[in-house]
Specification:
Layout (H helix, E strand, L loop, with lengths): L6 E5 L5 H10 L5 E5 L11 H17 L4 E4 L2 H14 L5 E2 L5 H7 L4 E6 L1 H5 L1 H10 L4 E6 L3 H6 L6 H17 L3 E4 L8 H8 L4 E3 L2 H15 L13 E5 L3 H11 L8 E8 L2 E4 L2
Parallel strand pairs: 1-2, 1-3, 2-9, 3-4, 5-6, 5-7, 7-8, 9-10
Antiparallel strand pairs: 10-11
Length: about 280
Amino acid sequence: MSDSRPIGIFDSGLGGLSVWREIARQLPQESILYLADQAHVPYGSRRLPEVRELSKGIARFLLDQGAKLLVVACNTASAAALHDLRSIFPDTPFVGMEPAVKPAAERTHNGVVGVIATPATFQGELFASLMKRYASDVRVLTQVCPGLVEAVEANKMDDPQTKAVLRKCLVPLIDAGVDQLVLGCTHYPFLRPVIEQVIGTNVEVIDPAPAVARQTGRVLARRGLEADLPADSGHRHVFYTTRDVTAFAAGVERLIPFAGESPEVRPVRWRDGHLQARE
């Protein structure tokens, strides 16, 4: 059996495209719906109950569009809402994000691991659970990096101010001797070249997106939801944004080039806690 329905992915903005590109690479036969809630970006500075409500509205919208599985491609939304989403939509498989503390703890040579993420990610029960399960034998240093999400959204990854923010964020971790750096926000992989310039060659940078894509493939297989179309037959990708379509399309083309093909971007808007298509 083949299930040609699309995978749904959502984030507050462009960051979840780092997960999109890995899922598209590993599962080229699958169609994907991607929703960026840019009207509320960044989620990381918002209260967890607000992020939870936004996530519920987005999940309902993507399921209404026919999504067969939802990937919460946002660490903050996963921390705030993943448990509730699974309870509210029990028939829908969800794949969430979590800081890659486990592989960092397994790979460290000196027992010192750094995690950069948003404040809301560190506040959630998910992070506390990760620490308890996987970090009992290592020292985990956490760092918030205000402004990095906005830099990716504004295409300022190479801006001197962005580099200054990264240096301020990373130097304390370098001085503390971390040998593993976990990227705990899906926007951060797009800053990886600059991060590696600052952090140096002695620190391994861990992006969780490949592992999330592998888990997505495993869940699809376990549930019998895989599409089996050839990569060039019948699948399609649609993007939604709650803000400006033209600017978002430019961001998509910049961060995950389509080899000359323009992405299909559709506008949606919030109304009374629900997402609706708009002209």
